[in-house]
Amino acid sequence: MDKDKIDKKDHILDVAERVFSEKGFDGASTRLISGEAGVNMAMLNYYFGSKEGLFLAVFQRKIASFQIILQNLGNDESISAWTKMEQYIELYGDKVVTNNCFQKLLYQEMGMNRGNDLSDKLRDMLLKNVGTLDKILREGIANGEFKKDIDISMVIAALYGTKNYILNTPIMAKPLLGYDITDEKMIETKLKPQIKSFMKNLLKAYLFN
């Protein structure tokens, strides 16, 4: 694909990401997105096929590079399982609170449990990240670094669930944490360090003999 076509696709994806974040999946339309992107419907349908295809393309673009980084981490044989866990938490803590509007849209869509092809594809993409964490935990158990009786599914739920609760319920998070999690400065100086420090301490206490 030549550079002009790549640039055009990226432009459409940029606009689609903003529109989806502002209006939600149901509230957005391909006609609105094509209009704001300055392209005709035929071009949008040629590249993405449907609104569902466009949403998946937006999501895939956002997580593709992150997935490669996580997979490389999981496959690194030069460091311990715990070092991998620490690095996973660092990467996750930095990534998940970036572009919070899109994160909320994603988990809102997953929480609706539509039971359709879109939900299944979103789930499968997310499970790749979960799979890397599962692999690291099993590696630590196998080599004796972690306790043998740890509950892997609950470790994963604790890591992902803590973030989801804080970011998706700001009305609770502000009085709970004592600062505004919608403030970018507070996210960088307070929330990210707090999530990462807490999860490392929590999981270190749980995983080790």
UniProtKB/TrEMBL annotation:
Nucleus recorded as keyword: no
Keyword DNA-binding appears in the UniProt entry: yes
HTH tetR-type domain span: 6-66
PROSITE patterns per the UniProt record, alphabetical: HTH_TETR_1 (PS01081), HTH_TETR_2 (PS50977)
Ranges of the DNA-binding region feature: 29-48
Pfam families: TetR_C_29, TetR_N
Keywords of this entry: DNA-binding
InterPro entries for the chain: DNA-bd_HTH_TetR-type_CS (IPR023772), Homeodomain-like_sf (IPR009057), HTH-type_TetR-like_transc_reg (IPR050109), HTH_TetR (IPR001647), NicS_C (IPR041474), Tet_transcr_reg_TetR-rel_C_sf (IPR036271)
PANTHER family: HTH-TYPE TRANSCRIPTIONAL REPRESSOR SCO4008, TRANSCRIPTIONAL REPRESSOR
Protein name: TetR family transcriptional regulator
Organism: Mucilaginibacter panaciglaebae
Highest classification ranks of the organism: Bacteria, Pseudomonadati, Bacteroidota, Sphingobacteriia, Sphingobacteriales
